[in-house]
Design brief:
The chain is α/β, with parallel strands linked by helices. It has helices spanning 19-32, 48-52, 61-65, 97-101, 105-114, 132-136, 157-165, 217-224, and strands spanning 7-12, 37-41, 85-88, 119-123, 142-148, 172-177, 197-203, 209-216. The protein is built from eight helices and eight strands. The radius of gyration is 18 Å and the shape is globular.
């Protein structure tokens, strides 16, 4: 989609679809090939990536964007998850997250990171929650939109298709997460395209998940993009 891309931004429709999980795993995969990777927590509201990395300090993305810090090396947490994976935590929660992310210092941050890393992975907020995802996307070269089976209402797929068609996110592609291989439970063995299904649903108050089967893998992809490209 963008052969020379170094900056990958992760987002989703809502919380709980696995963008932090997928971004961490992709970082390790890339690092395993010998690439130097930095995970940047640009979700300066919730800070999930930072919490998983054990970041207890208040310094990070927000303090760099505000101009308090100018040396990025002082903010990096080295060798997270893999010897080749570093983490730049979100920092303290600012009173004006969206305004801070619109600062020109975000471009400066990415430019500095490009000097030291082969890949920069931005773990961002869900696209429908706040405007931060579209604000940060201006520095992204590829957008990884995570959809988790059983959570996204399929009626939103037309909106997702519109975002793709109108190029609201740079080089947007879709990651289907937590897909259950229903064929295996019936002994069908391994095979691409067999036993996969996607549904919509929601989480109940006690944490249980209700799911309704709605369509096959191919039909979901056709809804995301036009049929001629499938």
């Amino acid at each position: 989609m963008n052969k020379g891309a170094k900056v990958l931004m992760f987002t989703s429709t809502m919380a709980g679809e696995g963008k932090t999980f997928v971004s961490r795993n992709l970082a390790v995969i890339l690092a395993g090939t010998g690439k130097k990777v930095v995970l940047v927590d640009t979700d300066i509201r919730k800070r999930t990536q930072s919490k998983l990395s054990g970041a207890k300090c208040k310094e990070g993305v927000s303090t760099f964007l505000s101009g308090i810090y100018t040396d990025i090396s002082e903010l990096i947490i080295p060798a997270q998850l893999h010897p080749n994976v570093d983490v730049l935590p979100a920092g303290s929660i600012p009173p004006n997250p969206a305004e801070l992310l619109m600062s020109d210092r975000l471009e400066l941050l990415i430019a500095e990171l490009k000097k030291h890393y082969d890949y920069i992975i931005l773990d961002n907020v869900p696209a429908l929650v706040v405007a931060d995802a579209s604000i940060v996307n201006r520095v992204a070269e590829i957008t990884m939109y995570v959809i988790r089976e059983g959570i996204l209402d399929r009626r939103y797929l037309t909106e997702l298709e519109r975002l793709h068609r109108e190029k609201k996110f740079n080089n947007m592609c879709v990651v289907l997460n937590d897909v259950k291989d229903k064929g295996k439970r019936y002994g069908y063995g391994y095979g691409y395209g067999y036993g996969y299904g996607y549904g919509y649903g929601y989480y109940t108050e006690d944490g249980g998940r209700k799911r309704k089967h709605v369509s096959s893998r191919s039909s979901l992809l056709k809804r995301l993009f036009n049929k001629k490209r499938i």
